[in-house]
Design goal:
Chain lengths: 533, 364
């Protein structure tokens, strides 16, 4: 990284240190870094933790939090005169409703917590999502220590997987990933071995490794849990990738609200360093500043480079043209954390763990189940099996969202379907991040759809019209429906807009953003009032 | 250009060079592809999504402006899928913009609206309630941003950064609130803006326009004639188009706007400076000299012929030189003269009047 690149990459951190975009702060940061002030301002204005420093509280209105009274909490805090706004999923769906006080995530927030603060935002308390706080986990009937991730296991900083990878050599490690059938666990499900081979084959130097820990898909909190409990798996996986692909610099991009996971990763890095492991590999932690879209890998790269988090056009893919234009491997937290176990026990072992597709999978489950949490289960279990691991359903199952907002909704009749890549795609949905939200019959389907549409509207980067205009168009159409102003014509328009969002959007956000509405129209026509038309 | 390569576009075999985009290849073959965010002076961003084409073997439609041509590609620019995409996309744009009639106050026809009409976009979709901040109190004299017309193609911000290296404006905010902004919403006068007006020229929708009073005589483009001329403010020779309202001033005509010629026209490639683009009101100014004037014995200025005026000037100069010596004369020429004219002034000074007292205003 050249000096100028490094300066620019610091832009967002410096703005955060200056307390966000207050009058004059962009100008000052621009002066320090020798950049045009508008560039600093434009970048800062993209991230809601920077763009609006006067808002001190943010109530999560992600689906699981909304189902637990988040909108009432928001109204209550507003009525109490607090500087409060709504925000997108805080990855604490298992402890809903959640709230962000400056950059601290508070969970299990109750109306009393707001009332007792007597209008003072600083006084709002709740259980804090910190390094020593962890959520519920489970692994069904499996023996914990036989699992690739093993959330309940002890930290292991022996570096044995790294050493074995050194002995095997890069080609054999990648062959093992291939044999394991390891697919990306962030949402897209891209085969890991292809990415690794791609970067390794690129002649341009240097190569970079980037960890995508910008977990923000509503309903998803498995990476949070994984980093809190097994940061060793993450760091060792990254080190193996760096060794195999000839990279020296590893960038870890965590969403800015993940203070606990940040500390846990720092602790693991320090522990490995103390053991004299991974010499020559430099780990750089970067905090996000509030933008779901930065979980999209090229938007993440833009943010790492100190720019607005707008996705790049693909091709070229990051394996060829990634961070600062160099070949870059970007992997989700869970994907990389599978690597040490695959190196130790072999690809065929990992593959055999799955039910319908290779490996185990961390499923986040929240909403109407007894024990929301993160469960490491064979890939391809059904919703019924997952719910059973989570203590059973609460109430009568009506619908579920199998893989985050981007996966739309499926009806209760799909409860036996395998929650895997192919099975859910065949049902017009997707496994995505495997952040499952369960809705029982006490919920309003149309309200649930609206929360997902609001989410995409708020988190669209605004770069391309199908997504920027389309998300707003759909939300406004639903609002007209709720006001009773809808017409048959508008249903046709909605269908056309949804088609165009998928066809014309630059990135996966826009391409999937209509799914909550279109799947609900498909499976719940009566609930959405479209059955008669 | 490297070795010659070939691809197929709408069934036609076309050759291209290394580095060409699909849009470049199509353009040379006379195949029209709709664009809004494209400008040959700027790095393509593929953001407006109008130029998407289908490439055999590619699952997704690809932006032709940003996709490099590859040997053997089979490309389609019109089929049912692309036509449906274009129509839906432009319908969405219209639902988030103003009506075609509302854009008549900018001289250049809104490219958005003309494309929308051509692809048959719906004009009856509900109008969206997007809230884009527009800095309506900016006190700069020339540039007006009207957010309700903006499609966020970012031609203006990219032009400002990539061509002018000024970076006064930026995309700001996110999602449907994304807008074109200055740092801390300051007036352009309090930024690095040089008021070149390039943002107005590159805008495809009329979101960036001239402010009143400059804009008050504007009419739709079809009622104006464009007259290509050379800017006379300095010796660079920038080409520009006078937008002339022939009917104005009882048929004498009036220049109501300056616009850039198409990119590629030498020497300025469509770029102009604040003087060239905005300082044209001298054309109709009441104090403007239209015939030579010579001061008479009565101390007043009188209309004269060029012959008389030049005689008077020569007599005066020679008289001073005779009475006080050649070095009592000094010659200052204008930056509005060409290089050749400036050369002749120094020749006049040194060779005819024998003095080295010669200067040119833009040399300081």
């Amino acid at each position: 990284m050249s000096g100028a690149n490094k300066d620019k990459a610091e832009l967002l951190e410096r703005l955060a240190a200056a307390g966000g975009l207050k009058a004059g702060s962009a100008t000052e940061v621009a002066r320090q870094l020798g950049l045009p002030e508008a560039e600093v301002y434009g970048a800062g204005s993209f991230f809601h933790l920077l763009s609006d420093p006067e808002t001190k509280l943010r109530v999560c209105t992600g689906l699981s939090c909304a189902m637990r009274g988040a909108r009432d909490l928001l109204a209550q805090a507003q009525a109490a005169g607090m500087p409060v706004a709504e925000c997108s999923c805080l990855a604490a769906c298992d402890r809903a409703p959640a709230l962000l006080r400056e950059r601290s995530v508070l969970v299990d927030v109750k109306p009393e917590d707001i009332a007792q603060a007597e209008g003072k935002w600083q006084a709002v308390q709740g259980a804090e999502l910190s390094e020593d706080w962890v959520g519920a986990i489970g692994c069904g009937e499996a023996v914990s220590s036989h699992l690739p991730i093993d959330l309940a296991g002890e930290m292991d900083v022996s570096g044995s997987a790294y050493r074995r990878a050194e002995t095997l050599g890069a080609e054999a490690v990648i062959a093992a990933l291939d044999e394991a059938g390891l697919q990306g666990r962030g949402g897209a499900g891209f085969p890991a071995a292809i990415k690794w081979r791609g970067v390794r084959a690129e002649p341009a130097a240097p190569h970079y490794i980037v960890l995508n820990a910008d977990e923000g898909e509503p309903g998803t909190f498995k990476d949070r849990e994984l980093m809190l409990r097994r940061p060793d798996k993450v760091i060792e996986g990254l080190a193996i990738a760096a060794m195999c692909l000839g990279a020296e610099d590893v960038y870890l991009y965590l969403r800015g609200e993940f203070r606990g996971p940040w500390l846990a990763l720092e602790r693991a890095i320090a522990a490995f360093a103390e053991a004299g492991l991974f010499p020559g590999i430099h780990f750089h932690l970067h905090a996000g500043h509030g933008a779901y879209i930065c979980g999209e890998e090229t938007a993440l790269l833009e943010a790492l480079e100190g720019k607005r988090g707008m996705p790049r056009l693909k091709p070229p893919f990051p394996t060829q043209h990634g961070l600062w234009g160099k070949p870059t491997l970007i992997q989700n937290v869970e994907t990389i954390a599978c690597v040490p176990a695959i190196v130790m026990q072999g690809g065929s072992w990992f593959r055999a763990l799955g039910k319908t597709e290779p490996g185990t999978k961390l499923y986040s489950i929240s909403g109407d189940v007894a024990r929301p949490g993160t469960y490491e289960l064979p890939l391809g279990i059904s919703l019924d099996e997952l719910a059973q691991a989570a203590g059973g359903y609460l109430g009568t199952l009506m619908a579920f969202s199998p893989g985050g907002a981007s996966s739309g909704f499926l009806p209760a009749s799909e409860r036996g379907r395998a929650l895997d890549f192919k099975g859910l795609a065949a049902a017009g949905s997707m496994l995505g991040s495997a952040g499952v939200v369960v809705l029982n019959s006490a919920n309003s389907m149309i309200d649930a759809v609206r929360e997902q549409l609001v989410f995409f509207e708020n988190e669209s980067c605004g770069q391309c019209a199908p997504c920027r205009v389309g998300t707003r168009f759909l939300r406004e159409a639903l609002d007209r429906k709720l006001r009773g102003e809808s017409s048959q014509q508008s249903l046709a328009q909605v269908a056309e807009v949804a088609w165009e969002m998928n066809e014309g959007s630059i990135c996966g956000l826009g391409q999937a953003a209509a799914l909550p509405l279109t799947t609900a129209l498909n499976h719940f026509p009566k609930a959405l009032g479209s059955a008669e038309s | 250009m490297g070795k010659t390569l070939e691809l197929t576009l709408n069934g036609q075999t076309l050759s291209f060079g290394e580095g060409d985009t699909i849009l470049d290849v199509a353009g040379r073959a006379g195949e029209e592809i709709m664009t809004l965010c494209h400008d040959p002076r700027l790095k393509p961003v593929g953001a407006c999504r109008t130029c998407l084409v289908e490439i055999d073997g590619w699952r997704r439609l690809a932006p032709s402006c940003a996709t490099k041509a590859e040997a053997g590609m089979r490309i389609t620019t019109h089929n049912e899928r692309i036509d449906r995409h274009q129509k839906a996309l432009l319908s969405l744009y219209l639902s988030d913009s103003v009506s075609e009639e509302a854009t008549h106050d900018t001289a250049d026809a809104s490219q958005l609206h003309s494309w929308a009409a051509r692809v048959g976009a719906a004009t009856d979709w509900p109008h969206l309630d997007s809230q884009r901040f527009e800095r309506s109190d900016d006190r700069n004299p020339y540039v007006q941003f009207r957010a309700d017309r903006c499609i966020l193609c970012a031609r203006c911000t990219r032009y400002c950064a990539e061509v002018e290296s000024v970076s006064a404006i930026t995309l700001a905010g996110r999602g449907s609130k994304t807008t074109i902004a200055t740092t801390d919403a300051r007036s352009l006068l309090d930024t690095s803006c040089e008021l070149c007006g390039g943002c107005i020229d590159v805008c495809p929708t009329g979101a960036m326009t001239e402010k009143k009073p400059l804009a008050q005589r504007l009419k739709p483009a079809r009622m104006l004639d464009k007259v290509r001329t050379t800017c006379n403010y300095c010796g660079v020779g920038c080409q520009m188009d006078l937008n002339v309202d022939r009917a104005a001033h009882q048929g004498r005509g009036q220049v109501v706007k300056i616009s850039s010629p198409e990119t590629g026209v030498a020497p300025n490639d469509g770029n102009l400076c604040v003087k060239g683009r905005f300082a044209y009101q001298f054309i109709d100014h009441q104090d403007r000299l239209q015939v030579p004037l010579v001061r008479g014995e009565d101390g007043e200025l009188h209309e004269a012929s060029w012959e008389e005026a030049l005689q008077a000037a020569a007599r005066g100069l020679q008289g001073v030189a005779k009475r006080h010596g050649a070095d009592s004369l000094g010659f200052i020429s204008s930056s509005r003269c060409t290089g050749e004219e400036n050369y002749l002034v120094q020749k006049l000074s040194r060779a005819v009047f024998k003095t080295n007292n010669v200067h040119q205003c833009s040399a300081t």
